[in-house]
Amino acid sequence: MKNVFTIYRNDWIRIFKAPVAALLIVALMVLPSLYAWFNLAASWDPYSNTSGIKIAVTSEDEGAVIRDSSVNIGDEIVSSLKKNDKLGWEFVSKEKAKEGVTKGEYYASLYIPHDFSAKIATILEDKQVKPEIDYSVNEKLNAIAPKMTSTGASTIVQQVKENFIHTVSESVLSVFNDAGIKLEEELPTIRNIEEKIFALEKEVPKINELGEKVVTLEGKLPEINKQAQKILTLEAAFPDINEASKNILLLEEKLPELDKVGEGILVLQEKAPEIQKLADGVMELDAHFSDISEMVTKALSNVEDMQSFLETASGSLEKIEQGINNGKQLADTLPAFIDANGQALDAVGPVYKQNLLLHQKTADAVHQFAALVQNGNLTEEEAKTNAVALQAQVQTSIDSLTRSVALFTTLNSVTPNGDDALLSEIKDLQALQTNFQQEKKLLHTIQAEDKEKASSLLALSQEAIELSTTLMNHYDKQTEPAIHRAIEGIKDSAQNAMNDLESAQANIPKLEEILKNTDESLAFAQEELTKLHSDLPTIEKKIHEATNLIKKNMDKVLAGINDAAEFYQKSFPSLKEKIHAAANFVRNDLPAAEQDISKVAAFIKTDLPRVEDAVHKAVDMVQNELPNLEATLTKTADSIRKFEDEYDLGEIISLLKNDIQQESDFISNPIVLNENSLFPIPNYGSANSPFYTTLSLWVGALLLISLLRVDVRDPEGIYTPNQVYFGRWLTFVTIGLCQSLIVTLGDMFILKAYVAEPVAFVLFSMFISLVFMTIVYTLVSVFGNLGKGLAIIFLVLQLSGSGGTFPIQVAPPFFQKINPYLPFTHAINLLRETVGGMVKEKVLFSISMLIVFSVIALIIALFLKKPLANGTRKMTEKAKASEIIH
Fold this sequence. Notes:
Strand content: under 5%
Helix content: over 70%
Radius of gyration: 58 Å
């Protein structure tokens, strides 16, 4: 690498020492830019100057008469073109136009013959003749101009078509519109008559049926009179009916309560497995109640024994305190006290565990109460009574927890550096105590219908259950060993009292505190166990009665719950709807029905005789006049139907009546083209900048290999071929990067070319210059003058095959096939992304392809530079020997 940079440094030292060489290098940097700039400036916006393309226009149209109106389409075309500045229209005679096109004064000519309008007018005749416009073009003048003039001529023809269609369609639609308006004015009358005839025809069977019924009715008049008397009887019964309807309204009022009962039944059905499980538990409890009774009795006896131990220990501790100032007496007495009252200290753990069980019981009781309130299973009085009892129970647990916290605090204080298990236990006890305090507040204000507070109480009690369960779970493995360690510490301190009287003196109050807390805890346990023991006979009796009741009735109860739930789910909704319907009838329809029946009764009393007379007259009409009326209606309706089968009057009116201008415009211009430009570029020059910039970079590389040497003078032979390649390559690449900077910055700041991504435009151009310079430099460095020829051939192929000017799809198949394998293709595409707007995938693809070309060039250099070095040198010397090639 050192030799490579030595070559590179020496190149620039020699360049700056020779002003002519430096000037030449600067010129080589700028020249490619001029190539791009002049081409871009020349083709910046060619389509804005098309008014200079002269087209001769000649109209000899004599005009025509269409529906009493004179028209001259040729004059209209000429008038329209005079307002059109897209092309250089010149209006001359036919002879001058022909001569001007032949001599090149005009690019093309348009000739409108004398019968142009007359042929258009044949649209209204039996035989139509298409009009013609003669278009002549001189194609040798320019390759692009004929395409522009052809577009202009096509536009004129299209404009004539649109104007013609618009005029003709407007005339025809005007006639149709007048007819449609008149027909529409009479449409209501037509429809009204038609509907009445059809309705009457449709009713003929009913009329006949009615006629038959009238005849039948005449025969039923005696029966009607009989039923009329029943209506009169019904009218008299309405006071009793109104009284009965009140019961229906009362039943409707009770429906919400019935709904609530039904919902409770569904909840009960859901809880059926739990009820069964509870029943099984009650029966099991009944079977083992004697064991429970024995266990409670034993626990109470143990509490009494422990209290006896504590009383003895407390009395002994007083004697210990009396001799606290006599060190020898304390040392002798305190160990004896510990030995004599060890059972009292050992009772601390079991008493605490017993209290934890009672805390669990309190939490369970509150949880069950909260569940009953939430489900609405308690009356207001029951809720109040239970809440008061639970407040007292919760307060007892709070007091017990206060003593337990004090106990563990004392135990922790006698433990050197504290005990983590005791600290954790204190934290959990305080959390449970806080929980119970919150429960007590809710119990003080809760009511039977207070669902929200019941939900909060349920959550708190569940938390209390979990906390007490956690304390119980920790007892055997964590809490009990910690208590034991603390007690043993006190015993050890007592045994060593002679050695540390101050420690003994400090532990005496702590022992007093421990014994006091334990005694208070025992009092709490004794109180709760005594209550439980006194209630055991009553509880046992109730449990036994409940067990017998469960055995006898559980299956019937569960079946009844299921039947009730099925009735509530399947039958009750329809029954409820019927009750509502009946109640609605009572509220809304019964009064009206009563009025109607009263009216009917009044009718029977006053008008029924006249109805009977009318029935007799109707029967006479049915028998004598109805057949002729039926035949006339049928014939008229058939005629109308026949017309409607063949014609749709509404559709005819809709087709005839229209917006003339709108439909005429639609017929002449039926399609709207919505143009949407993606990545818009404001002018042709900016759109061509990727091509000409890419081309200038390759041309810049060609100029360098034509004027600069790719070899390095090395008479001592100190450089390897690869070192020579990379050393001189750095010089070429440096000049190429300067070329790319000059051309891109000039594009943007001199020509003002549009670039969407300016920074990427400059950076990618430098990258492309690096790739091009590597390819061209490698060709010449490895193959000598042959490489220069190859670089020029590549340029020629890439100009045609890269799709820089025309889309590659319009090029011959050969160029389409080589297009993906040309560096120009991907370089132009990369710069187009920066000019119009970048798409990440296309940018990455183009960059990767250019990297592939660079890698191929470097591989050729690395593997062929040295093997071909001698052959290339000899070929260059032979070329120089011709004294024509340098």
